[in-house]
């Protein structure tokens, strides 16, 4: 049973409007399902949008932010819990540990870094948690093709796509989140 989901996503306020709409919808649905949000603790971009949506819908939000980002005034102080840590590494470890599943929305270098880490850890057997990419407007298409190329050149196992699932809608994301683990 999934009781908390770690969400990785953009901190940019310039992301396309449809990404903000999806983040808000996902946040509302997580709260309705009683799934708490674990995320990077920011009040900006898609991160702030999904956190606000969960909170406004009566849900629980746990944020983890490194001190240097808190000091830049991007921390979201209205959360259920805000944990200020010293390093990005500590933040990433808590994000990975505290969620029962990983939901990955469009994002930049930080989101990509977090995605690569949890996929690598799954490949190495460190966890068996679901990894779900919300592939809005084909955002992740080129990366998924690149993964296929790496596998074709025999640097990844042929079953590499079993480590994650990609979907195109919030509804499909929630269906995958509630699906029993595959054998």
Describe this structure in words.
With 183 residues, this protein is an alpha/beta fold. It has one domain: Rossmann fold (3-Layer(aba) Sandwich). Helix content is 43%, strand content 17%. It is built from 7 helices and 7 strands. Strands 4-3-2-1-5-6-7 form a 7-stranded parallel beta sheet, with helices on both faces. Helix 1 packs parallel to helix 2 (45-56). The longest helix has 16 residues, at 17-32. The model has no long low-confidence stretch (mean pLDDT 95).
Please supply descriptive tags for the structure shown above.
single chain; 183 residues; alpha/beta; Rossmann fold; 7-stranded parallel beta sheet; 7 helices; 43% helix
Q: Percent of residues in helical segments?
A: 40-55%
- Oligomer status: single chain
CATH topology: Rossmann fold
Q: Assess the beta-strand content as a share of residues.
A: 15-25%
Query: Could you say which overall geometry the principal axes of the C-alpha atoms support?
Result: globular
Overall strand count: 7
What summary fits the major beta sheet? 7 strands, parallel
Q: Quickly name the level 1 CATH class.
A: Alpha Beta
